[in-house]
């Protein structure tokens, strides 16, 4: 079977980038309007953190389920369904007038927070191994792009018309983008981009995932280290995503406009950092199969250093803080696309969504407590201390785990390439 054209492959990548960016924006906007929510429901930082934690925990419960479904059925259809659920649950969240009702409905929005596992699996079947880093970097940039969009509409709509009207808008975007994916994106057979299977008619019914295969994924050494680094690696991201805007308003004494400008600069820089990280990973991977792991190790060690310097910078030096934040923002996301690409480099095509979901499960299981911990530390010592402590400690651990990954990943990549060669012979 002929592979899709590179032009159409990038078209699909862009459509899925838009979908997931808007989905991330829907998740992120609560961070922008948190001051409104804290005031309206008269809750503390701890309860605000618990709200994010509960939503994340529900997402974790659904990760293996969605991952299995993405590996088993149409990824285009399932991505579209998650968009419909996203819109419906976000609209539902606008109805309650008590914190308990808000807590319950906000938690329900975690049900659909799993399309990335299907998206990266689909992308991996549009691009060959040595070219996956850049499109996966684009998909990885959806977190920053979503935060960028969420910040803009959060300030322009949320602070002008209130958080409920804001949620109505972001929920509507979910339904609109779900329909766009359904009508413009095509499914392709799993394994279409593997070089050994080029030109062959792929019969997916021969290689279907079984539910028990999900539990066997962590037996692979590379997956074990990727999952463990994910457990620690997203602690800082969730903490920064939840509290960064509030931190600038309440501890750095920024105006809403200045905080918005800083966030715009940083988030645009993060998008560039994601793409750059994927491109660098591709370049090193073409030289050595350890390349992506090497990039990951260097990036997380540097991230720990830069976040410490930035958040420790004197409050009175606003320009210096923003410049340091910009440098940090470029470095922070560069490991992400190399993590996802490493999963695709080591796992057979019919199990890649489940593998991505498994990494996400470990990420969320570890990071689900991060907003709560940061909120607790903020109540005692201030937001800045909580953000520094969580970020530096966990990224140092990640650096050690990436170093271990670099030692074991060549064997798993060789095993996958051998398996693809065996399948090519069977299909011929």
Note down, in words, how this protein is organized.
This protein is mainly α. The chain has one domain (6-207, 218-427): MFS general substrate transporter like domains (Growth Hormone, Chain: A), CATH 1.20.1250.20. The protein has 18 helices and no strands. The chain has helices at residues 6-32, 34-41, 45-72, 75-92, 99-108, 115-124, 133-140, 142-161, 163-184, 211-216, 221-250, 256-285, 291-312, 318-331, 336-346, 352-367, 370-381, 383-427. α1 crosses α8 (142-161) and α3 (45-72) packs antiparallel against α17. The model has no long low-confidence stretch (mean pLDDT 89).
Number of helices: 18
Unreliable runs? none
Shape call: globular
The CATH architecture can be named as: Up-down Bundle
Number of domains: 1
Radius of gyration: 21 Å
Summarize the amount of helix as a percent range. over 70%
Strand content: under 5%
| Average predicted confidence as pLDDT | 89
CATH homologous superfamily caption: MFS general substrate transporter like domains
Helix/strand structural class: mainly alpha
Q: What is CATH's topology name? A: Growth Hormone, Chain: A
CATH class: Mainly Alpha
What is the CA–CA distance across the termini? 12 Å
The helix/strand series, from N terminus to C terminus, equals HHHHHHHHHHHHHHHHHH
Largest sheet: none
Oligomer: single chain
Total beta strands: 0
Record keyword descriptors for this entry.
79% helix, 18 helices, globular, 428 residues, mainly alpha, single chain, Growth Hormone, Chain: A
Question: Strands, helices and their partners?
Answer:
Layout lengths: L5 H27 L1 H8 L3 H28 L2 H18 L6 H10 L6 H10 L8 H8 L1 H20 L1 H22 L26 H6 L4 H30 L5 H30 L5 H22 L5 H14 L4 H11 L5 H16 L2 H12 L1 H45 L1
Helix pairs in contact: 1-6, 1-7, 1-8, 1-9, 1-11, 3-5, 3-6, 3-16, 3-17, 4-6, 4-9, 6-16, 7-12, 7-15, 8-9, 8-12, 11-16, 11-18, 12-13, 12-14, 12-15, 13-14, 13-15, 13-18, 17-18
């Amino acid at each position: 079977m002929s592979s899709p054209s590179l032009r159409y492959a990038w078209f699909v990548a862009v459509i899925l980038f838009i979908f997931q960016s808007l989905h991330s924006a829907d998740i992120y906007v609560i961070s922008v309007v948190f001051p409104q929510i804290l005031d309206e429901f008269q809750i503390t930082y701890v309860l605000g953190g618990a709200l994010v934690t509960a939503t994340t925990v529900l997402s974790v419960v659904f990760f293996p389920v969605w991952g299995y479904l993405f590996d088993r059925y149409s990824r285009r259809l399932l991505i579209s369904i998650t968009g419909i659920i996203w819109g419906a649950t976000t609209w539902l969240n606008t109805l309650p007038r008590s914190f308990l009702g808000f807590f319950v409905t906000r938690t329900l929005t975690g049900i659909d927070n799993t399309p990335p596992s299907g998206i990266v699996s689909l992308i991996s079947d549009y691009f060959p191994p040595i070219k996956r880093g850049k499109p996966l970097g684009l998909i990885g940039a959806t977190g920053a792009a979503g935060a960028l969009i969420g910040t803009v509409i959060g300030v322009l709509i949320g602070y002008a018309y209130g958080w409920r009207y804001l949620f109505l808008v972001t929920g509507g975007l979910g339904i609109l983008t779900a329909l766009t994916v359904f009508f413009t994106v095509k499914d392709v057979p799993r394994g279409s981009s593997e070089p050994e299977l080029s030109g062959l008619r792929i019969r997916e019914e021969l290689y279907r995932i079984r539910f028990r295969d999900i539990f066997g994924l962590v037996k692979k050494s590379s997956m074990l280290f990727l999952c463990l680094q994910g457990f620690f690696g997203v602690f800082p991201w969730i903490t920064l995503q939840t509290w960064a805007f509030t931190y600038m308003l309440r501890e750095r004494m920024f105006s809403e406009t200045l905080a918005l400008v800083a966030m715009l600069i940083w988030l645009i820089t993060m998008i560039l950092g994601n793409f750059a990280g994927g491109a660098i990973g591709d370049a090193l991977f073409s030289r050595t199969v350890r390349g992506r792991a090497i990039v990951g190790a260097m990036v997380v060690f540097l991230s720990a250093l830069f976040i410490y310097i930035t958040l420790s910078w004197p409050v009175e030096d606003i320009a210096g803080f923003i410049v340091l934040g910009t440098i940090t923002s470029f470095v922070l996301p560069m490991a992400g696309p190399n993590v996802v690409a490493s999963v695709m480099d080591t796992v057979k095509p019919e199990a890649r969504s489940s593998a991505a979901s498994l990494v996400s499960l470990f990420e969320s299981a570890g990071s689900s407590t991060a907003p709560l911990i940061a909120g607790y530390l903020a109540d005692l010592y201030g937001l800045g201390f909580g953000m520094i402590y969580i970020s530096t400690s966990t990224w140092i651990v990640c650096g050690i785990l990436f170093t271990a990954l670099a030692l074991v990943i060549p064997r798993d990549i060789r095993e996958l390439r051998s398996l693809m060669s065996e399948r090519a012979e069977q299909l011929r």
